[in-house]
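A student in our group prepared the protein record below, which I am reviewing. Thanks in advance; the entry in question is below.
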Amino acid sequence: MPTIPDIANRDTYWPAGIPRHLEMPDGTVDANLDATADRCGDRVAILYQGRALTYSDLRDQVEHMAGYLQSIDVKRGDRVLLYMQNSPQYVIAYYGILRAGAAVVPVNPMNRHGELEYLAKDTGADVMIFGLDLADHALPLLDAGLLSHVIGAAYADMADPDFDLPLPKPLAALSETGFSGTGRIGFGDALDRRIAPRSRETGPDDIAVIPYSSGTTGQPKGCVHTHFSLMVTAVGNQVWNPADDGDVFLATLPFFHVTGMQNSMNTPIYMGGTVVILTRWDCVTAAALIARYKVARWRSITTMAIDLVNHPEFDGFDLTSLKAIGGGGAAMPEAIAQRLKSLLGLDYIEGYGLSEAMGATHMNPIDAPKDQCLGIPVFGVDCRILEPRGTRELPHGEPGEIVTHAPQVFQGYWNKPDATADAFVEIDGKPFLRTGDIGYRDADGYFFMVDRVKRMINVSGFKVWPAEVEALMLYHPDIAEACVVGASDPRRGEVVKAYVVPASHTKTRDGAAIINWCRQEMAAYKCPRVIEFTEALPKSGSGKVLWRELS
């Protein structure tokens, strides 16, 4: 059993009663499900829209999905696109892909044609498992020959149609009936074939997940994570903030995102919790689920907590079962945190992480959190503050770039050795990941965010990299140049604004038409909300766009 050791000479406020060394299971993430099913197979693993799935049932369905994938020639090390909203099918597909020996490529369900085409080409994935609500965006990849097989899931097939908190109507109306043809099969039909997979062929060092993280230049990059790097935070979450055996978790964060994937799926399955899944965020439904199922633990993003607290019926919600709340994405406003504390008696525990580190590298101590704070480095994390893009370490209180050496840091960017090399700096003989975030460390060892080195827009906790949006916008025939910046928004924090130089052949200035085109090509949160036309973009003598002059 491997051990993640403590970093010597920490100057942090370590939580009372929490070990400094992390004992790790010596296995794969999908083997965690086997272990939990062996230990408590009759326990409910998933509650979804009025139906329950036990751990034994979940394992059986994962095995059948793995067997089906292997029957269509998915092999160890292959990549499989997983493109759907939170649902039991997502969990079954995720663990089924891992059990088959392949790697999960989690795809944001808000992604559209241009983004999907890029991911299929970049990963070389041949198979996609997707929600039928996304068929209009998924099936063109099959028709174009980019994929050989697709597996379509209707969330309603695993829901009780008479449940009093129904799925949104567009989702409730979908069915897998009739979804067939060359390269197509319904999710339920794939399971019904009951194909047994081969014996497990993977180990801790095999690739498990490749989440895509948008970069400062060009297209997104795949962050290569092994079963081991996933296991570090899946296990670390439970040790840092221990859940009781059988605790109920509310999953509102999307599973495609590393925080939702780890905190709301992999950690509960590792320790045997029950996961209540909400497909689409709705604060009234979330509150009803908390009350009905006595939810104990809820990990969210700041905007979800703000929605809940600001609802006119908030004071009447029964949230008394909650024992732990927290999240990230953006700093929690002090007024919201205070209201949660006054009504629930709970601190909103904030943390810090990124796709390159499979979730949190920093968390606030449960017994001594600080407000608007990233927290302290967790198990085995060595974090320094350097002068931006330099190597000189800065003293406490002085802002600089956050760099991290940690066991959960990725193996590198998929097929991008130059970008991988540029992401690291060597200090004391160890590789440290350059996060691109500006922060400082106080005298107690707590870290705080100040700004970002990278040119990033934060829309409700979702990272938007202007270079990616600009690259997609340039496919529009009427756009010669585009420069994307952030514009402040009272609810979302920021939204996307685009300065557009029209192509010489067009005299149109239709911002709404450009926005509508963008909605077909990229996730809604990335789409510009504001278009401003200009005859030219400000540029330096070397030709670089001076985007700060437009901010």
Observations:
- The first strand starts at residue 3 and ends at 4.
- The mean pLDDT is 91.
- The chain has three domains: 29-280, 378-452, 457-550.
